[in-house]
Amino acid sequence: GMSSLADWIFSGILPRFPNITLAYSEAQMGWIPYFLERAQNVWSEFRGWAFDPEIVSEPPEFYFRRQVYACFFRDNFGLKNLDDIGVDNVTFETDYPHSDSTWPHTEQFVREMAVDLDDETLYKIVRGNAIKMLHLDLD
Fold first, then answer.
1. Between 20 and 30 A from 138 (CA), which of 17, 34, 123, 124?
2. Cβ-based neighbour number of residue 95 at 10 Å
3. pTM of the model as a whole
């Protein structure tokens, strides 16, 4: 996930095409706070060497918040770091039909996950952000 997201940002694709939306499924989300920190360092310290600063004019976190969603199903570390990841950029996935999945116990899994989440955050994670990400007219 990290090298791919770095490519999307630093190649200039996300900056040049602001309507592209990426969903990082099967990658969980616990890696994102470190990625954003490291990408910020590269953006600040290596401008003009690692990328074209005229194209990638905003910090990497800007493009992440605008265009990227992290999909997860088992990531307690990620849930503990929602503030750093951004609750508006997270969606729940089941990963069905793969063996590394919450199915057939997804409902119970979500109930257990929801214990520490307020209603607004839970709604965003299990429904609202997916609707926004997929540009659906459901609410």
1. 17
2. 17
3. 0.90
